[in-house]
Amino acid sequence: MLNQKTSDLSNVQIEVIDTLIGFEEEEKIKSKQLASKRLLAARRAIEEHKEALRLAEDIDQDAWFGELE
């Protein structure tokens, strides 16, 4: 049945359909890539924040010098 419908389509129609399908697939790939980039950026931001907190604790003068008093 699909072959029969396909044979009724002109080459131009088939080309347009193929182009649309290719465009949709390309948009899905771009969307996934953008989501991956956003996720990676979020992970990096979280790691930077955690590192800043660790450094702040390490540099905290009260913690270092409070024990000496």
From TrEMBL:
Which InterPro entries does its entry note? Answer: PA3496-like
Q: Which residues form a coiled coil?
A: 32-59
Domain of life, per the record? Answer: Bacteria
Give the UniProt keywords, A-Z: Coiled coil
Protein name in the entry: Uncharacterized protein
